[in-house]
Amino acid sequence: MPNFSGKTAVVTGASRGIGRAIAVRLAKEGARTVLCARNRDDLDRAVREIEQAGATAAALPLDLRMPDAPDQLAQFALKRFGQIDIVVNNAGATKRGEFSALTDADWADGFALKFFGAVRLTRAAWPHLKARSGSVVFISGIGGRTPGPLFTIGGSVNAALLSFSKAMAENGVRDGVQVNTVNPGVIRTSRYTARLEALAAQQGTDLAEAERRFVESEGITRIGEPEDIANLVAFVVSPEGRLLHGALIDMDAGATKTI
Questions:
Q1: What does pTM read for this prediction?
Q2: How do beta strands 178-184 and 32-37 pair?
Q3: Angle at the Cα of 229 from the Cα atoms of 228 and 235, rounded to 5 degrees
Q4: Residue 49: enclosing H or E segment and its boundaries?
Q5: Residue 2: pLDDT band by 50, 70, 90 thresholds?
Q6: Which domains does the chain have, with CATH numbers?
């Protein structure tokens, strides 16, 4: 198993779902972990979980849509732990819906956090990652490769992240910083639960049957768990995963059908 003792990891969107699972996994493997999200109470609960497991964590509630917030996060990590070895850019949810109903504000909000928040944090942390031969992971999504009609914002934001990740990987070759992207498929988060409840109500079935039908209709093996993504990220940023560089890794139970 990976051992991240002596390393500091910064994880955004870490109060719940995928981000929380990643933060918990890295911390339990020895990383001093800095968690960031907007909700202080959820962050505090995540930190307590990590500390109860005997690991080290600190949290900073910030709205990473604000231009100065990513630099604040990087400075907080440096002040608290003296270095930055791993950055996981996970924060950001985008609005689904019919294209004609999505406003300019919806589009701006979608890019503000998931794209620009990641760009700014990567820029703020890069000199410190370079000094430590560190790693950056972007959590994007399969919609960046296979967009759908109700996911015009998310697909566009994710595609931008994929392009940014490839460009930064070239800088990483020069500077000794590993850069990769993970594209989750459908993961059991609060957003998925809300979608499943709506499907069940629409179909007049229970949640288990609605999920069975959804998995069948999507042509996938199962719904992913946040821990599935956390396990992959832990491998990618470990010494065993160091050959991965500039990779766009689909972890989606077979949802992506294209080459």
A1: 0.96
A2: unpaired
A3: 95
A4: helix 40-52
A5: confident
A6: 8-187+224-251 (3.40.50.720)
